[in-house]
Specification:
Elements lengths: L3 E4 L1 H5 L8 H12 L3 E5 L4 H9 L7 E3 L4 E3 L5 E4 L4 H13 L3 E6 L2 E4 L2 H15 L5 H12 L5 E2 L4 H4 L6 E7 L4 H11 L5 E4 L5 E6 L4 H12 L6 E5 L5 H6 L2 E5 L4 H4 L4 E3 L6 H10 L12
Parallel strand pairs: 1-2, 1-12, 2-3, 7-8, 12-13, 13-14
Antiparallel strand pairs: 3-4, 4-5, 6-7, 6-9, 9-11, 10-11
Length: 297
C-alpha cells in the first residue's frame, strides 16, 4: 500500500513546457485527498521549484538541491547539508580551467555569475528535450521562466565564499560536450569520495555533499512520518534520482528516463510529456501498479 509519493521535477513531473500539466496536478491532488503524502524531490532550489507547484495549487514538502535542503509544507527549512568552502574553491578552480559555466545554490538562494549563460543553459535543456521547439523560442521560454525564479547575480563567486553567513549547498556545471568533458571532471572532483556527483541532464553534473542525496532525504522523511520505505513510491528520470529509486518500494522510471536509470526501477510509466506521473498515481490509487512492472528477463 502506497503511503508516500515522491516525484522528481525536470524530465518527470514537468512537461516539455517546463510546467506541471493539469492532468498531473489533478492526480496529485486526488492522492492527497485520499490521505497519501506527496512531496517533490528535485535538483532545483526552493525558489525555482515552489512557483511551479503554486501555479497548479499543490502544497507539499520539498526535498531540494538533490537532498541538500529539505522544506516542510509551510516553506520552513528543516535540513541543510552544505559543501565545505575549501572544496568549493577546488571545484571552481577545476571548472574554470576547462572554461565551463557553473552555478551555486546557497543558504541565501541561487547565484549565477553570468546571466546570459544562465539563460543559455536553461534554453539548451528546453531545446534538447523538445525537438519541435526552435532554439530561439527556447531562449524566449527560458528567459520568461527565469523571471519568476529569484536568481541572484554576482560578478565573482568569491563574494559568496568570503561571506561566513552563506553556506554553499549545491554546485552545477554545464558543458554542451556532455559526458565527454563532464565524466572525466566528475572523476577528478570526487577522488576523496566526499561528494555526491550526479546529473539531471546530459549537459550537466550536479555536485553535493555525499550526505545530500535524494534517497537519504526521502528515507528520513518517510521515517518521520512513520512510513516504511516499502510503502513509498518514487518517480524519476535521471541519475540524481537513482538514490531514491533504490530506497523506494515502488520505484518508477518515466519512459524518457536514461536507460541506466531504468535499470534501478521496478516500474515503467509513460514519458513526462505524456503525464507519466499521473498515470502511475492513478494506478496506485486503484492498486494496479503491476501493469507497469518492468520485465527484466
Amino acid at each position: 500500500m502506497i503511503e508516500l509519493i515522491a516525484s522528481d521535477m525536470d524530465g518527470t513531473l514537468l512537461n516539455e513546457r517546463m510546467v506541471i500539466s493539469e492532468t498531473n496536478a489533478k492526480a496529485i491532488l486526488a492522492a492527497q485527498k485520499k490521505g497519501i503524502n506527496f512531496m517533490v524531490a528535485t535538483g532545483r532550489g526552493y525558489t525555482e521549484a515552489k512557483p511551479l507547484l503554486e501555479e497548479v495549487g499543490i502544497s507539499c514538502p520539498l526535498i531540494t538541491l538533490n537532498g541538500a535542503q529539505v522544506y516542510d509544507e509551510d516553506g520552513n527549512v528543516i535540513e541543510n547539508i552544505g559543501i565545505k568552502k575549501d572544496t568549493v574553491r577546488d571545484i571552481l578552480e577545476k571548472v574554470r580551467a576547462l572554461g565551463l559555466y557553473c552555478e551555486m545554490t546557497t543558504s541565501h538562494g541561487i547565484y549565477s555569475d553570468n546571466k546570459a549563460k544562465r539563460i543559455e543553459s536553461v534554453a539548451s535543456l528546453i531545446y534538447k528535450t523538445n525537438p519541435d521547439t526552435s532554439f530561439k523560442m527556447a531562449v524566449v521560454l527560458a528567459a520568461a521562466r527565469l523571471e519568476i525564479m529569484n536568481i541572484n547575480y554576482v560578478s565573482q563567486y568569491e563574494e559568496l565564499l568570503e561571506n561566513d553567513a552563506i553556506e554553499i549547498l549545491k554546485m552545477i556545471t554545464f558543458s554542451e560536450d556532455g559526458p565527454t568533458v563532464l565524466d572525466p571532471l566528475a572523476q577528478e572532483l570526487n577522488v576523496s569520495g566526499d561528494l555526491a556527483i550526479t546529473a539531471s541532464f546530459i549537459n550537466n553534473i550536479e555536485i553535493n555533499n555525499v550526505k545530500a542525496q535524494k534517497g537519504l532525504a526521502l528515507a528520513r522523511a518517510a521515517e518521520k512520518l512513520g512510513i516504511s520505505t516499502e510503502n513509498v513510491m518514487a518517480l524519476g528520470d535521471n541519475f540524481n534520482d537513482v538514490s531514491m529509486l533504490q530506497v523506494a518500494g515502488y520505484s518508477v522510471a518515466v519512459d524518457n528516463a536514461e536507460e541506466g536509470v531504468k535499470a534501478h526501477a521496478k516500474y515503467l510509466t509513460s514519458a513526462n510529456n505524456e503525464n507519466g506521473v499521473a498515470e502511475s498515481i492513478l494506478l496506485a490509487l486503484n492498486n494496479n501498479m503491476d501493469q507497469q512492472l518492468i520485465d527484466k528477463n
